[in-house]
Every structure is written in structure tokens, then in C-alpha cells.
Design goal:
- It is a single chain.
- By secondary structure, this protein is an alpha/beta fold.
- It contains ten helices and ten strands.
- The chain has a domain of 123 residues: HUPs (Rossmann fold).
- A three-stranded parallel sheet has the order 1-2-3. A three-stranded antiparallel sheet has the order 4-5-8.
- The protein binds glutamic acid.
- Glutamic acid binds next to loops.
Amino acid sequence: MKDIVTRFAPSPSGHLHLGHAASAARAFGYAQKHSQKHSQKHSKEPGGICLLRIEDIDTTRCKPEFEQAIYEDLSWLGFKWPTPARRQTDHLADYDGVLDKLRDKGLVYRCFKTRKEILNDIARAPHYPGEPYTGPHEVMDAGQERELVAEGKPYAWRLSLYRAQEYLGRQYNRLSFMDGGEKVRAVPALLGDVVLARKDVGTSYHIACCHDDALQGVTDIVRGADLLDSTHIHRLLQELMGWPVPRYHHHALLTDADGKRYAKRDKSLTLRSLRQSGVSPQNILAQAQELG
Ligand code: GLU
């Protein structure tokens, strides 16, 4: 057992870019720093390891060639991970099992609303704009629900924060996590009643990610600050599922000279194209560090 287990968990929906290199450098670097500290004290096994996880549940966007490219690009940068990397589409039954458990506890509900209806509901909320969606507190009439399902009306499974709060009682307001060494109170309402599964993507990032972090014994999650709001929901899922709570280290996102975030669509900044134009891995890592 390693003392420190981190992971880098990209989605193969495009080629990795400079922002990913920065994020990977932080996750792999965190594990390495700890393995060096550890091996100074003990001569045996290193104490830190970074896993690679392929988060490819969205099969409408993820492609095998991007997965291959992730392995190549990360190897080119000099990172090493235990193989094979966990690929989430190989474990969809595990995530269904999580949804079943939450359903058995009465913590999820079928939401039949269309996107437009949801947006209208949000617009009517008292703190609009930007209010996350929260569904009705009362459970839908079972007969009506059966009918809608039988009619084939599309729906999403949403986590009910109202019922989660009822289920956990006082504990709900006491949930917290460590972020960069600071204790943060978890506020799941930041994202509201998140979607946990849909017809086309039968699980969600939230379920698959938290399930795998628990299964893989991840102790430290090093990732971009764009996922901080999700962490508030993840902390709740960990409590509802009885999973361990890792330490978090959210880092600022890499931005370009105009302060804009790097995105997969910025083709010129993919690691592939930088490599093709003759940039060295050392140079990429130095840039990633400098800009981060
Ligand atoms: N797969 C997610 C992404 O590509 C990252 C997940 C995580 O680090 O928790 O943005």
C-alpha cells in the first residue's frame, strides 16, 4: 500500500493540450514529491504513486484515438503509471450499482423535464441568475411516473439534495473537505440536484469519478479549480455511499496571455502539434510550470 495515491483522469474527447500537461505535472509531481520524501526515510517501496484513469463514459464525445494519444503524449512527457490504466467504459456495471444503491435509499428521482422547462424553472427561482436546479421536494405519484416511463418520455436521474439532507440529518451541514490544507465546508447546493445518469450516458462524471477514487484508494486529488464546485457534490456522495474522503488540492487553471483558459478546441496548443513543431517535453513542462 502506498501512503499517497494521486491520479490524473483525463477524458479522451480531444487531444491533450498545455493545460492538461500542467495538471498532469501537478498530479504526478505530488506523488513523486512524496515518494522522494518517503524513500529518504525508508529504503523500501516508494510512498507515492500517480494513477492514470481514462474517463470515457461519454461515448458520444470520447474516441479510442484520443485515448491512444493520451498514452503517447503522457509517455512523451516522461510520466509513468501502473498499467493498464483504468478505463471507465470497462466498468459501467459498477456505476449502475452505485445508482441502484442511491435509488434504494430514495435519494434519486426521475426528472422528466426538458432542458427548456428546467431553464424556465431556474429563471423563476428567487436568486436567479445562475441558480442551480433543485427539483420538487415531493415524490412523483408512482402511477404517473410509470405512465411517463411507459410512454417513453426521456428522463434523467437526479440526486435529490432535499432527500439527502433528510437522510443525513444534521450531518449534512457538517460535511467538509480539505482543500490545499484548508478545511472547507461542503455546500452541495452550489450545483443543486445534479444529473447522475441519463439514457444516452447511463452514469455521470460524479458517480464514476467518486466510485473510482474510492475503489482505487486515491488519497489526494490534484485537479483544476474548475472542478471545485463538483467537489462539494462529491463530498456528499462520499457520505451517502460510505466512501473515504480524499484530500483535495485544486490548482488554478492555466490561462493564455489574454487570461483565457486553454481548451481542447485550441488545436495549435495540443501537445501533439507542439511536439510536431519541434517543442521538447522539457520545454512543455517548464512552460506549464511557469504559466500555472
Ligand atoms: N475527467 C475530468 C476532465 O477531463 C477530470 C476529472 C477529475 O480530475 O476529477 O476534466
